[in-house]
Design a protein that fits this description.
Length: about 230
C-alpha cells in the first residue's frame, strides 16, 4: 500500500459508505434495475439506451436526456419521480434482514476513540440508511450523515459535491478526509473531491476490480481500517 497520508496532511475525518462497507446489503439492486428498465421501456425509451450492464444512474440520465430531446419534458420529470419512489420501495423491502459487516461497530468505536470525526455518505435514502443501521445494530451517532435524498440527486455520489459537503459538515477540508467504500462510485467521488480513498473487499469489488480502477489502498473490511489509519499517524 502507498499509505493514505500525503505531505504534512493527516487524516482527521473518516467518511464511510453504507452498503457493502458497514452492512451486508439486503437491497436487490438487480431487481431495482429491472423495474426501472421495464418502466422506461414502457414509455418508449429505446432499448439501446437501457443496457442492463450500465449503472442505474447512467440509464436514468440517458433516458431523461432522450425524453427532453423528444420534447417530453413532463414525462422526464414524471419518470424521475417514479424512479425515486421505486428505489425507496425496493430499498426497504428486506431492510429488516440487514446485518453488519464483521467488526464494523468496533471499527467505529476505535476510530471515535482515536479522535477521528466519523461520517456516513450513502446513495441510499435516509429512511433506508437509518433503518438499515438500526437493524444491523449500528445505530451509532455520526458527526455527519448525507443520503441520496438530502440534496438534489444529481449531487449524490459519485458527484464529488457529496464528499465536499460531508467534509464541510465535519468542519474539515476534503484533503483531511478519507472515504471508505466498496464500489468505483465511491472512488470516483473521493477523487473528484481530492480526498483520500480506501477500498474494501466486503462488498461488490474484488482486489482485481480495485486494481483495475487504480485503487492503491485496499483492505479486507472496515475491521482493518483503524490499524491502517493509526499505523500512519
Amino acid at each position: 500500500m502507498s499509505g493514505i497520508i500525503s505531505g504534512d496532511i493527516q487524516i482527521r475525518g473518516v467518511v464511510l459508505d453504507l452498503d457493502g462497507t458497514l452492512i451486508h446489503t439486503t437491497v436487490d439492486f438487480s431487481l431495482m434495475k429491472r423495474r426501472m428498465i421495464a418502466s422506461l421501456a414502457q414509455i418508449g425509451v429505446p432499448l439501446s439506451m437501457l443496457d442492463p450492464g450500465s449503472l442505474m444512474l447512467d440509464i436514468m440520465d440517458r433516458s431523461i436526456r432522450y425524453l427532453n430531446a423528444e420534447g417530453r419534458s413532463t414525462e422526464a420529470k414524471e419518470i424521475a419521480s417514479m424512479a425515486v419512489v421505486m428505489m425507496n420501495h425496493t430499498e426497504l423491502e428486506r431492510v429488516s434482514e440487514t446485518r453488519p459487516i464483521g467488526g464494523a461497530g468496533e471499527c467505529i468505536e476505535r476510530l471515535r476513540g482515536g479522535g477521528y470525526k466519523i461520517a456516513l455518505l450513502t446513495r441510499g435514502s435516509r429512511a433506508y440508511a437509518l433503518s438499515a443501521l438500526r437493524f444491523a445494530g449500528l445505530d451509532v451517532e455520526f458527526d455527519a450523515v448525507v443520503c441520496r435524498d438530502d440534496f438534489p440527486e444529481e449531487e449524490a455520489k459519485p458527484n464529488g459535491k457529496a464528499m465536499l459537503r460531508v467534509a464541510s459538515m465535519l468542519g474539515l477540508t476534503p484533503e483531511d478526509c478519507v472515504l471508505v467504500g466498496d464500489h468505483s462510485m465511491d472512488l470516483q467521488c473521493a477523487r473528484s473531491a481530492s480526498s483520500r480513498f480506501v477500498g474494501v473487499l466486503s462488498g461488490s469489488f474484488s482486489a482485481e476490480d480495485w486494481s483495475k480502477a487504480g485503487c492503491e489502498d485496499i483492505i479486507d473490511s472496515v475491521s482493518s481500517l483503524p490499524h491502517l489509519l493509526m499505523k500512519n499517524d
